[in-house]
């Protein structure tokens, strides 16, 4: 089968950053599905894994963690899906990725693809949706359904126009019905996108967050979802989080810099990390919840409560198109999600 991957970890514009090779098609066993990949999405994690370093792989390493496709074979322990089913998933960071014709993925982290969406529209959703869902409803314990508590709560999403921010805004406003959802965005088009996703208003992340919130008569917020480098905003989050509030971050600190976490003690604030790969990496007892939440997401998309965050398609998956996709992600100018159709 055709696959596009890396052997050296090179800058995106350097020749041979990505390589096209014919490799052996994998055979499913156990809980694995063999999926014919129809569309993939590119995420910041792809560029971080590919980031320049001295390592050299002996065999091509296929990356990519977002896909939609058709099940063509199943392992002997599979019970959730059958051959011919359309599925969407983010996969596991410890296994071969989706930038290939076929991919093995554990059915416990796979969802039924929405029937009303195309492969491209569906491929934009899994990784960011799992991240946003677990951040809001598992890490910060926000009620999944509308409640009196939710209606009185305020959520700030730092980095609202990106993939995770876009779907987190929808989940918070359209599903949980949080009273006030605020996003950060600096450009006119970013702010317009956030409003489309359901944000009540946006503030500029390049200026004082606290000052801008006060302009809207908001002193503190109940919840913060940080979708940017955590240390860039940590001190500001300490100031604006409500006593006994919750903060969840999905992005590491720059250069592994430790956080002054004790600053949160006086407010008894809950701080947590979210990494959607944790469950698949460690095969946790609740690994199957990603299957369940993707199925719920699929229904929400089919019912029109949620909408795809796809904003750009760069054609078929090829060395050239994947290079362009990584270049665009690294420019930090993306709004929503970027998708490629199956291998050329």
Question: Can you offer a commentary on this structure?
Answer:
With 344 residues, the chain is of the alpha/beta class. The protein has two domains: 2-125 and 284-343, Quinone Oxidoreductase, Chain A, domain 1 (Alpha-Beta Complex); 129-273, NAD(P)-binding Rossmann-like Domain (Rossmann fold). 30% of the residues lie in helices and 29% in strands. It is built from eleven helices and 16 strands. The protein has helices spanning 44-50, 119-123, 126-139, 148-151, 163-175, 188-197, 209-215, 230-240, 278-282, 289-302, 319-330, and strands at residues 2-9, 19-22, 32-42, 53-61, 67-74, 86-89, 102-106, 110-112, 154-158, 180-184, 201-203, 221-226, 241-249, 270-273, 310-317, 337-343. The strands form three sheets. Strands 3, 5, 6, 7, 8, 15 and 16 form a seven-stranded mixed β-sheet that branches. Helix 3 packs across helix 5 (163-175). It is globular and about 60 Å long. The termini are close together. The model has no long low-confidence stretch (mean pLDDT 97).
Q: What are the main properties of this structure?
A:
344 residues; alpha/beta; 2 domains; 30% helix; Rossmann fold; 29% strand; Quinone Oxidoreductase, Chain A, domain 1
């Amino acid at each position: 089968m055709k696959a596009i991957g890396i052997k050296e970890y090179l800058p995106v514009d350097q020749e041979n950053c990505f390589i096209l090779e014919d490799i052996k098609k994998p055979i499913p066993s156990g809980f694995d599905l063999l999926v014919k990949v129809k569309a993939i999405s590119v995420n910041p994690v792809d560029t971080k894994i590919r980031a320049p370093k001295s390592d050299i792989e002996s065999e091509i390493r296929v990356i990519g963690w977002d896909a939609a496709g058709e099940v063509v074979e199943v392992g002997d322990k599979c019970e959730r899906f059958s051959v011919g089913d359309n599925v969407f998933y983010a996969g596991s960071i410890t296994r071969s990725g989706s930038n290939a014709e076929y991919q093995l993925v554990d059915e416990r982290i796979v969802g039924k693809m929405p029937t009303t969406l195309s492969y491209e529209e569906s491929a934009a959703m899994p990784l960011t949706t799992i991240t946003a869902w677990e951040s809001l409803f598992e890490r910060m314990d926000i009620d999944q359904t509308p409640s009196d508590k939710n209606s009185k709560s305020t959520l700030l999403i730092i980095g609202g126009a990106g993939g995770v921010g876009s779907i987190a805004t929808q989940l918070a406003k359209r599903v949980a019905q949080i009273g006030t959802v605020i996003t950060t965005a600096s450009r006119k088009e970013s702010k317009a996108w956030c409003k489309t996703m359901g944000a009540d208003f946006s503030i500029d992340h390049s200026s004082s967050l606290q000052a801008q919130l006060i302009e809207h008569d908001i002193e503190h917020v109940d919840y913060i979802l940080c979708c940017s480098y955590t240390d860039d905003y940590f001190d500001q989050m300490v100031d604006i989080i409500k006593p006994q509030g919750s903060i969840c971050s999905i992005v590491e600190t720059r250069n592994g810099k430790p956080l002054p976490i004790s600053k949160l003690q006086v407010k008894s604030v809950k701080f947590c990390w979210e990494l959607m790969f944790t469950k698949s990496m460690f095969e946790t007892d609740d690994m199957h919840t990603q299957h369940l939440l993707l199925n719920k997401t699929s229904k929400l998309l089919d019912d029109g409560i949620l909408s795809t965050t796809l904003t750009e398609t760069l054609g078929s998956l090829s060395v050239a198109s994947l290079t362009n996709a990584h270049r665009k992600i690294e420019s930090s100018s993306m709004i929503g999600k970027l998708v490629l159709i199956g291998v050329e």
